[in-house]
Amino acid sequence: MAEITETSEWLSLEEHFKKIKNIHMKDLFENDIQRFENNHILFDDFLFDYSKNRITEETKKLLISLAKSADIENWRKRLFSGEKINFTENRSALHIALRNRSNKPIMVDGEDVMPLVNDELSKIRKLSEDIRSGSWKGFSGKKITSIVNIGIGGSDLGPSMVCEALKPFGSKGITPYFVSNVDAADLSQVLEVCDPETTLFIVASKTFTTQETMTNAFSARDWFLNTAIKKEFIKNHFVAISSNLDEVIKFGIHSENIFVLWDWVGGRYSLWSSIGLSIAIFIGMENFEELLAGGHDADNHFISAPLEKNIPIMMALIGVWYINFFDFSTLAVLPYDQCLAKLPAYLQQADMESNGKFIGRNNEKVCQQTGPILWGEAGTNGQHAFYQLLHQGTQIVPSDFIMPINSNYKLGNDKNNHHNILQSNFIAQTQSLMTGKSMLAVENEMKNEINKNPDLKGLVSHRTFEGNRPTNSILFKSLSPKSLGRLIAMYEHKIFTQGVIWNINSFDQWGVEYGKQIAKLVLPQLESKQVTKAFDSSTNNLINYINNNS
Ligand code: G6Q
Predict the structure, then answer these.
(1) Which residue in 277, 275, 280 sits closest to 265, CA to CA?
(2) What pLDDT sits at residue 411?
(3) Has residue 1 got a pLDDT over 70?
């Protein structure tokens, strides 16, 4: 395939960009009363409003042509059919099979994976029901009240984000904890509030060799055995999720307590698999299945909706437009729901680990920018922190505003309604980022002050806002397992679509593997406490400084 940047579709977009780069969205709205009508997609109650973007009908047409020239329609099919599109690891990327509620066969190496998926789901059902009902007992006969997921990256961020998002659906009798950092502070703080008699540890690691996870798992096991004494009691308190069964057995986890993963489940796409065990225990299996159903809904939408009516495709194309043509290199994710506070961190991994790559599928360096720097914070907290830069900074940050229309928490009264206030902030921000505030409007506002003190005229420019700052608005009725499943899967497919356009493999993560490799080189130098000359002078001196001061 020719470089995407050399295609006529890309070149047409470059030409088009020159024409419209200075157009103000305010004018686009003023000149087209149908702008919202023509620039939103409603999928059931999931509303994706992309009208506040610096695009015209022509931009959309050209972007769709670009997607077609990248062969996105075929790539969708290849993803869903189980083809080994993760070619650097010779694997399929089949998170869609994990939530394939239709149960239609999906073949990998001639084998239908659905029976495997369903078996694992049955095991998750059994364990989660046993824990929730109290029929699973700790070593001293008590019910489990704390579950501690020990994992990192893809084996942590998904379950931890979902458990927080769906807290209102969670069991009151079970508290989920997530330990990921190898910093002893993380595990210690959790152990301080847990009781070995009533705690279940879930050691979640696809490889079961990840340094941070294994270090935490060994310390958790020691802590547990300090009280329980007998190794046979490990069976009541430790389960594992992994594809490395030998290592799990070596660790001492009973074979009945092992949940499996397959090589076609990527870490950052794994919350739908047994990695979601903590979710199922906390919110119950029916709710976990609703989450899967939401993901499946989004899959059906992505595979079947025409490109211009396809939410992940349009999200992806708008992102490409900003990253590659405007050179806007970051994306803010701004959920207006406290329960979604961890969503930006979750999507940061999903996006940056998938598309933060400079080598293309042709094994050559790509000719254009790839994934954005994704960051964000729950609204309205961000408004009192970094929104200043969103409104008046020299860098433009396209932003996704996300909000459930009805809150799971009812507080306040007619005059002091938390959710109305939250919603009004969402709307006010997206509106003002788009329109800005002209000098004339500020002058009018300050008329009386300026009349009294003409020097104040100098302040007018400080109080003006250029606007024209792009936002997507995503609304859905309420934050539920299903709507969350939809939301996450929409982003997954957006990321995939962008990877296809940039011709990169969104499913490997050599940068993560590199981190795992290099940490092992340094550790012996810190353990030996010897003066090191193994690295460059900065690294040597940092190691020596640590050794001299520890
Ligand atoms: C995700 C990455 C990475 C991975 C962690 C944990 O896609 O591969 O974040 O999930 O490094 O790996 P293990 O599950 O093997 O411990």
Answers:
(1) 275
(2) 87
(3) no
